[in-house]
Amino acid sequence: MGWYCPCDQCRRSGHSGDLVGVSSHPWQLWLKGLLATVAVAAICYWFSSLIPGVGIAVPAFVPATAAIFAALILLRQRPAPLAYIAGSLGTLIGADLLNFDKLAHLQAPIVSIGGAGTFDGIFVTGIVAVLITSIPSRWHEVGSRSRFGGST
Fold it and tell me: Distance between alpha carbon 100 and the CA centroid of its chain, in Å?
């Protein structure tokens, strides 16, 4: 006997929170999204550096790599949406918002939050994370189709 979940989705689907339906519960998806975002934000904050006259800098592939690993560890099936969310929000929170109090010390005439200046690093992080996390699932789909007699 598992735990009881009173939410509408669980009552409509017929599962009461037992091990069969746990992975599809919406709160678990939110929790995984929150964990992945916090992990990426922490890594981006740790790697971010403030450059006077320029702004906040993070090495180019650190946020995308962190989002890829967080998504693949937390969500094995279809990790691309989680990688995009964690990469975009985690980078924005970790690199920009957590360093918001230090922006006055940068002595920059204009400060752009989120990389909206010459290079939009947050958007690129999300796209790269989605592309790379989609590769293993694509291999799995192609392998399963050819193995079971489907056309490739």
Answer: 21
Element (H, E) at 83: helix 80-91
Beta bridge partners of 115: none
Helix 80-91 with 121-147: angle, nearest 10 deg: 170
Confidence tier at 122 by pLDDT (50, 70, 90): confident
In terms of average pLDDT, the best of 68-72, 119-123, 148-152 is 68-72
CA torsion 143-147-148-151 (nearest 10°) is 70
**Do the Cβ atoms of 77 and 29 come closer than 8 Å?**
no
Give the pLDDT confidence of 52-69 residue by residue, as tens digits.
777 788 888 899 999 999
Token duo for residue 64: 């995308």
Q: First vs last Cα of the chain: how many Å apart? A: 43
Local structure of residue 37 (DSSP, 8 states): H
Q: Which residue has the tokens 């962190």?
A: 66
- Per-residue pLDDT, 20: 38
